[in-house]
């Protein structure tokens, strides 16, 4: 296998998934591009994963929550994590995977998801579930980027993947075309659990590409809880700064 890998690398050398530069190894990002990505690390909110201002949280502890999470009476997620901030430097990595057929980046991005969710894996979840897309959108796009990420993340994390229990049965307006409250209303009845027996009593990790307003993840979490999920977590590649 080592000789085969060397031969393949000679013909098709690994390239940076951001700029396309040929790499010496298989890390996925060149040093220059790696330095431009705003990876999220502590200090952050224990619950929602929002990064704190380091200077303002000198006495930070690992289970500290932000003001918004402290105000909530009910939490849909035990923990939420994201690998990096969604901005001009990072967004093309996601858009390339999602809309431009650059699926070769999926293993690298799945490794980022694995690293971002290290404290979630410590909770010993039972299933990893990708946020689903409607079958009409699947026919047009040919693949679900979240399911593709789960394909590589599941063996890396040692957690079983479930691609069929959570489905999107309404082909709603794309969220990118909406904002604010309209995003939430657009998804109110979009998702359902087809096989609740697979979800009941389980700790579920939801996977998606970007968390913006959180509407998509929240609606998925609601139907999973209705189906009897014991706990729901989420990991996304990116999150917006707001």
Note the main attributes of this structure.
242 residues, alpha/beta, Rossmann fold, 10 helices, globular
What are the secondary-structure elements, in order, as H or E?
HHHEHHHEHHEEHEEHE
Helix content: 25-40%
* Main sheet characteristics: 5 strands, parallel
Q: Provide the CATH top-level class of the domain at 78-239.
A: Alpha Beta
Instruction: Please name the CATH topology of the domain at 78-239.
Output: Rossmann fold
> What is the correct CATH architecture of the domain at 78-239?
3-Layer(aba) Sandwich
SS content category: alpha/beta
| Content of β-strand | 5-15%
Q: Treating each run of at least 4 consecutive H or I residues as one helix, how many helices? A: 10
**Secondary structure tally: strands:** 7
Please tell me about this protein's structure.
With 242 residues, this protein is an alpha/beta fold. The chain has 10 helices and 7 strands. The longest helix has 13 residues, at 145-157. The relative contact order is 0.15. The mean pLDDT is 89.
């Amino acid at each position: 296998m080592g000789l085969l890998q060397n031969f393949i690398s000679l013909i098709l050398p690994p390239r940076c998934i951001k700029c396309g530069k040929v790499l010496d190894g298989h890390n996925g990002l060149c040093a220059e591009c790696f330095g431009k990505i705003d990876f999220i690390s502590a200090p952050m909110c224990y619950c929602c994963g929002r990064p704190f201002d380091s200077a303002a949280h000198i006495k930070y502890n690992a289970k500290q929550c932000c003001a918004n999470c402290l105000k909530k009476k009910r939490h849909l997620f035990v923990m939420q994590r994201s690998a990096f901030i969604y901005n001009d430097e990072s967004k093309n990595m996601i858009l390339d995977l999602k809309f431009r057929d650059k699926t070769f980046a999926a293993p690298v991005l799945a490794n980022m998801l694995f690293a971002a969710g290290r404290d979630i894996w410590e909770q010993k979840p039972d299933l990893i579930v990708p946020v689903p897309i409607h079958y009409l959108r699947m026919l047009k796009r040919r693949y679900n980027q979240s399911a593709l990420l789960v394909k590589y993340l599941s063996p890396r994390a040692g957690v079983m993947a479930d691609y069929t229990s959570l489905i999107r049965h309404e082909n709603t307006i794309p969220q990118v075309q909406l904002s604010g409250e309209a995003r939430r209303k657009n998804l109110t009845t979009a998702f359902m659990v087809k096989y609740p027996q697979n979800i009941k009593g389980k700790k579920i990790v939801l996977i998606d590409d970007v968390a913006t307003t959180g509407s998509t993840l929240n609606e998925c979490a609601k139907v999973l809880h209705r189906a009897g999920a014991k706990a729901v977590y989420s990991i996304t590649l990116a999150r917006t700064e707001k």
